[in-house]
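Weekly sync notes, structure subgroup
Attendees: PM, AL, DS (notes)

Item 1: joint prediction request from the bench team. They want all two components modeled as one assembly rather than separately. Inputs as received:
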Amino acid sequence: MTTAKHSSVPSTSAAPLERSALTSALLNRRLWLGVLGWILALVIFFPIFWMIVTGFKTEAEAIADPSLIFSPTLENYAEVQSRAGYAKFALNSVVVAFGSTLLALLIAIPAAYSMAFLPTKRTKGTLLWMLSTKMLPPVGVLVPIYLLFRDTGLLDTRTGLVIVYTLMNLPIVVWMLYTFFKDMPKDILEAGRMDGAGTLQEVIYLLLPLTLPGIASTGLLAVILSWNEAFWSLNLTSSQAAPLTAYIASFSSPEGLFWAKLSAASTMAIAPIVIFGWLTQKQMVRGLTFGAVK
Amino acid sequence: MATLELKQITKSFDDTHVIKGVDLEVNDREFVVFVGPSGCGKSTLMRMIAGLESATSGDILIDGQRMNEVGPADRGLAMVFQSYALYPHMTVEDNMGFSMRLAGISKDKRREKVLEAAKILQLEPLLDRKPKALSGGQRQRVAIGRAIVRNPSIFLFDEPLSNLDAALRVQMRIELARLHEELDATMIYVTHDQIEAMTMADKIVVLQGGEVEQVGSPMELYHHPRNRFVAGFIGSPKMNFIAVERVSSDGEGVTIKLPGGETRQVPIDGAGLSSGAALELGVRPEHLVLDEQGPMEGCIQVLERLGGQTSLYVQMGDSLLTIMADGDVAYRVNDSVRFGFSSDRAHLFDADGLSLAKLHRHPLAGLRRQDNRAPSDAVDQ
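Output from the run, pasted for the record:
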């Protein structure tokens, strides 16, 4: 009896103490992680923020000591718009980004299908080899591609850019689709085959509807990568097929550097894709972390 | 309606031989169960019949027609998968009607056939639901319904009950047997559960290591297993094996020396055995009898009381034997018990694990499933 009483005294008084110490440690941890996260986000976002702000300054304010106090003006936007037609570049960007994505998906879906469902001994090697081409610096093949484009009349055409972007994104698109298809239960496709579905019907009625979220996030990524690509667009286009990346670059040329105008042009160039990315972020995160977290 | 014949079927993946020459005949309207431990090749064999896997060599004949090169949908078969493999983005009705949709059958006609099958399986109220809104048992029934609408000559079931809980499994087992009666179709069923095999099959095919160990009716396999593997696999709890020695044999059977030194005669043909040959005595737990005058003795290690019965796990020498005894036995763990066995139920296996022939055939060994019921009784259990 006495021993029981003895032992019960410290345990009842110690338990809440320990618990509160534990919760406060947890809260602390969370707080610090939160602060750290915000700092990181600000560091990443700051250049974009500064670019947007600079776009509303005059040229003089833009090169003066950095300050957040100024009277905002839209004159840069007006001038930028009058000097080079934003719409033409934007249209090129849309056509090239979505066109190359569509083409890449059309090629990658059958490729990923055969790799996922009819693998051979060399499938894994092929996949790795495809991905390894992404490690090659693009400038290494600039001259041959430039010459090929010149001889085939593809220089400064949307078609040419669509082809380059398709090839550029194909490895990653095939790889992503492959992981999505791999995850699809084989039984369902086999049940379809027992029900009389040929390969094409299998793909259209079963595979595509069931992997649509994966295909969508793969497509989104390809659109964003194509939209942001600058190396090929700067080297292979001049006026006709130039997308928004070339539009930005055109403001850093002959007459000198106009920071405010450059900022206004950049803001306009990235706005569509930022809004697009923001609207589809859920889908994107799902697609990018697929396979890593299951 | 439909017969199936396999002739010297083999299957190899690279250097691994999964199926090593299987011969089998399945008669019209027969319920055949492939049973065996995991990795024995039973599922591969079924997938080859379905056409989802090609045979490396040999012939697959359905109704006498060679089907090796015919696609899965054109063999006149339907398969129910272990995972159900329902199309998750389609309603129950669309799932069941998918094969007809692919075949270009009109919507009205499709609905008519789906309703017909739904009626048999009591699925009518669920037709508009998606698979994720169904319970395991309901999904199973939809998968069966999808097979029924195809009007197949042979149904294939690949471990269809293994994802269900125990109570539902018993219920579906009964339902499948009922369905077999109602549809009057040939059915092939793969399972690793020997109770499913015993309760549903007209004919059991026991497989091990890609080879057929024995084909026969459930009672045939239980009473006359061809070898030690089949004897151990069929029956629950497993058969006990006891090392014995042949003493003599005559027209009445073989006299053997048991571990304790006592001898007994069992009615088994011992012709050709040399004196002193090492044999194994096989006795099922239900045929070991507690008996104070019994020839063998052991020490109880574990005691499981099931109410009506008690399982005794008895250590005798190196082997742990199982004895099914009456529910009310008064023994405790570490008690020593004496026991005997009913000699006409005993089996003997030679050094190669093959059964020695019994002198008398068991009266029920030739029993077929339909012999269990009166002519008017439709439900088979």
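Discussion: The CA atoms of residues 332 and 362 of chain B lie 35 Å apart.
Action: AL to compare against the crosslinking data before next sync.
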